[in-house]
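In practice, a research group might receive sequence data for several interacting partners and want a quick structural hypothesis before committing to experiments. The following worked case mirrors that situation: the sequences arrive first, and a predicted assembly follows.
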Amino acid sequence: MRTSRKIMAGFLVTLTLTAALAFYADFASRRSLEEAIGQESLILAQETMKRIDLAIHDKIMYVWNYAEQAWILTFIAKSNQSFAALDSAEDFMNRMEREWIAAPPDTPSPLMGELQDNELSRRLRQHLINFFVANYGYSSFPNLFVTNRYGAVIAATGRTSHYRQDKESWWQTARQQGISLEDIAYHAPSDSYGIAVALRLDDSDGNFLGVVRAIVNVGPIVKTAEIATGRYQSARIRLLTRDGKIIYRTRPYRFLQDFSYTDLLSRLQGEKGFFIGNEQNVQRFYSYARSTGKDHYPGFGWILLVSTDADEVLASAEVLRTRITVVSILLIMAGMVFALVLSRTINRSLAALTAGAARIGKGEFDFRMELAGNDEFGQLAGTFNSMVSNLQEVTASRDDLNAEIAERNKAEKALRESENRFRATFEQAAVGIALVSPRGDWLRVNRKLCDIVGYPEDKLLQLTFQDITHADDLDTDLEFHRQMLAGEISTYSLEKRYIRLDGAPVWANLTVSLVRDEDGAPAYFVTVIEDIEERKNTEQERDRLSMELARKNHELEQIIYVTSHDLRSPLVNVQGFSKELSTDVKRLLSLWQNRNIPEEIRQQAEPLLNEDIPESLQFIEKGVAKMDSLLSGLLRLSRLGRASPTLEECDMNLLLDDIVATMDFQLKQAGTEIRVDALPTCLGDRDQLNQLFSNLLDNAMKYLDPGRPGRIRISGVQDNDRSVYCVADNGVGIAREHQDKIFEIFHRLNPTGSEGEGLGLAIVNRILDHLDGKIWVESEEGKGSKFYVSLPGGTGGNRA
Amino acid sequence: MRKEIHIIIAEDDEGHAALIKKNLRRAGIENKIIRFADGQQVLDFLFLKGDGPHRQSGDSFLLLLDIRMPKVDGVEVLRQLKADQELRKIPVIMLTTTDDPREVDHCHQLGCSNYITKPVDYDKFVTAVRQLGLFLMIVQVPAIDGIN
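A structural hypothesis for the assembly, expressed as tokens:
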């Protein structure tokens, strides 16, 4: 990497780190800002909730304080006394209750009207409803009524659903515990939403007097939650019941509208908290506080939820971040420009130094560096210049020395390489190599040589080649050796045997050359030795096999020859004596005629002499003739094997003319038409070819179809270096399944219908073996056969 | 043919010998016929060796020699005869069952006077022996050992 780039990279890394730090600061400040806002907002929510709790508690206490006024207690006590005076308060109340319920909605029952208009009712209406409506525009208590200790209503500001209240659970609770509070709900008789409060009233001795019941209107109270919006425009408030029904909301809402479907509710866990969430795709800050109640008032688990737009809350943080970003970018850009300028300057100095050094390196020792300035570069230039001066002085002498050293190194290296190459070649050669002294001592041998002659190297080096050469080959070797030393020959090759350490002879091919020293005196022989044991063995085996084959062949021919010969001898006898016999029979017959032979004997003997004996003799003669023909054939066949053909170019038309001429009589007799086309010449033995084609024509004649005039045609073509002849006939043909067998010895297609010994095609085959020829047949039964003969082609053309 | 000429038949096959004899007689040749069963007997007879019969000095001979014979074959007998100064004068007719041209050549080279193939065809054989008879009639057969 170039220096300038290194500088630039350094700056870049520093600036990047600075920027990262700035962004971290931004991130951290944003987090702490969020935390601070959350806490502030949470406190606001908590305080607001407390204020609401307190306000509701106050209203409850207001009712209680009001109700415990002496005149009210007295009023109730009076009612209790009058009820106690009744025979059966129970019966009275039930009767009144029935009337109460039966009254139509707009017309109160007589008792109801009376009650609503008694003193207590009037004062309650006046003090707790009318007064507030007049002063605040609304009443905190839309509905109030009082029961005596029997549970019967004795005063009411408005209509109540029942006369008897003693069965109501709130009444029981208030009686037993002093107070009953019900969570906000809709109250039909007063058509208002509120918290229902029931309070027990006792006399000064603590005896139970009755119960006062009021609906506390929370609407105006919860409106005070608006203060929790604080300083944010986007702040929104929700006051929810424990199960998520809206009690109050800064935006339009329906009272007790269910809010529990939003996922926000699930996040409002515990007493208080704040979090960031999304509502309608806007990021908002949420903080919430749960009601803690106040004294008797339990708070009902109400939740005050305050939410604010995150953008508004974090607006100040955004401004900070933008500033940091701008400043960072400006810083980086300024830093880069500075780095660029600095690196350029350094680079220029370095480039000058480098160029100078390069010129000195090229041997320009007159060159001096020109770098002004007092910085390190200036000093370096000065030092450099003085160094060059010194260098200039020593270089001259050193150059000569270097040249010499370089030369010598090169030579040594070449020598070493050559030596290594030689050593490797020598050691790893696939043939045995040796250096041998003029006397015959092994001077140096390679591994392969040791393998071939079967000696370890140390042992071999103590011997001479004469020591381990086979006695039968030593003289030849020594003679060559002498001729080499005498300078008569410069190299020789010899196949000879060594005797291995284990005593076994091994065949090797030896190639020897002589290296002479500077004076021309023999220094050493270089001998290359190849293991030809295997080749020799193979050659010997091959020779043995071919001799064996020749012997077997000869034997076979001899057997055929002798056998045919010897078998013929007895035939001569059989033939000869059967002829003698027939002569004798004829003579006997002629003698017989002239004698007086009794008729009885004559009749018995004459058929024997005339018919039986001649017939037997005839069969014997036929048999003999047949066997003779077979033997002649065998003899001819064996003779073919023993004769070597005389190859010459043969005019096949002349040859065929000769054959046809000799067969002329037979052809004419059989009425066979024969045609010989112009034929190419071929290379063969005239006599053997004559026999070959004679046999083919004989066969063609023999197997003509007696049912139609015979036609034989001989044609030929030249095919590359072969001449192919065809002998075609229109005879009986050969069935496909027989076509392979016809060349077998003694095979006859039609043994009874034709003459011959079954040797014709065997002889043809034998001849073609000798003449490098081939024969094949195409034939269709009933149509004729075509015998093709392929022979080495001659050079001559055809006869037209 | 002069009566004093003896015909020697060297033929291991008795049948062949008998057929030859019969046919020679039938052809009217009345000369004495001596038959030997192998080449050794012929050589002994002519070279006056061994225990068997020996020729009389001054007799004239004509030899019918079968080629294939036990002990010493016809070709060897022919070779030995032709190697002998005196016996080489004896006319020799080779008899053989084969007409192998090379064998024929060989015998002629050794100096046989004639060569007859023993044909299996009886008629041919008869013809051949007749021809032999005629040949014997006209041939001049020298006496051996110079006694005529």
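Before designing any experiment, note the following. The CA atoms of residues 40 and 71 of chain B lie 6 Å apart. Chain B has one domain: 5-139.
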